[in-house]
Amino acid sequence: MNALKREGLDTTHGAILYLSDITVSFDGFRAINKLNLDISVGELRCIIGPNGAGKTTMMDVITGKTRPTSGTAFFGQNYDLAKMTEYEIAHAGIGRKFQRPTVFEQHTVFENLEMAMKMDKRVRPTLFARLTSEQEDKIDAILRQIRLNGQEDRLAGLLSHGQKQWLEIGMLLMQEPQLILLDEPVAGMSDAETARTAELLNELRGKHSIMVVEHDMGFVTEIAQQGKVTVLHEGSVLAEGRMDQVQADERVIDVYLGR
Ligand SMILES: Nc1ncnc2c1ncn2[C@@H]1O[C@H](COP(=O)(O)OP(=O)(O)OP(=O)(O)O)[C@@H](O)[C@H]1O
């Protein structure tokens, strides 16, 4: 099934995520302050901004980890995220990768992908069943995509930091989420690994809707291409536009990029 078209999600208006006037207060402090942000189906959106801008809190709202104090968050037109549990949101098709990889280190690369597929609630009856050839093909395709073909029998614990991150992206892909949230995917990676991750994300462009939070501006430039970059500051959108536009924006230079 095409990950952009899962049954049940209504994206007829073209957007996959709508955040409208979202505020999140922690004891009166507004980590998110009347935030408005839409993501289109198939878009790769980069989110940048200084420490404490509210990027992680925004992802927590989208995945149901944190409830907004006010405002609305919709996945497609029909899923009201504020009314759903984290489990229901994951099941509905929003996948998140945290900054630190959380692969099963005592299992092989292949087994990690297999487990990710079997944890997919839509195919649960197959938990103890042998893989079908279609499922094996899917794992093979993802192994190639995440540049770990030929490494499928290695223990995940023996992979480099970058490879673990790719494996975790592969585990997300196994579940065919329609919206993928990636929190600082290249933090701690070597330059070569960062470049390969940019290639990987460019290959995923258009096949999934993706939101990437990242501080590495070289990487953001590689993956943003002509798409939109959103700059968060003090819990709101400070600027939005192509990378060259936001990089030239005086307010963005002042609060984030520096002179
Ligand atoms: N549970 C919480 N209780 C109180 N304050 C919080 C909580 N979570 C986040 N904050 C505060 O909200 C603000 C936004 O934090 P958040 O982690 O969302 O920023 P960020 O943009 O992800 O930063 P970074 O780039 O450092 O990851 C920060 O000032 C943070 O201290």
Automatic annotation (TrEMBL):
Gene3D superfamilies: P-loop containing nucleotide triphosphate hydrolases
InterPro entries: ABC_AA/LPS_Transport, ABC_transporter-like_ATP-bd, ABC_transptr_urea_ATP-bd_UrtD, BCA_ABC_TP_C, P-loop_NTPase
Record keywords, A-Z: ATP-binding, Nucleotide-binding, Transport
Any one Gene Ontology molecular-function term assigned to this protein's record: ATP hydrolysis activity
Record-linked PROSITE patterns: ABC_TRANSPORTER_2 (PS50893)
GO cellular component, as recorded: plasma membrane
CDD domains in the cross-refs: ABC_Mj1267_LivG_branched (cd03219)
One Pfam family per UniProt: ABC_tran
Domain ABC transporter, residue spans: 17-259
NCBIfam families: urea_trans_UrtD
UniProt protein name: Urea ABC transporter ATP-binding protein UrtD
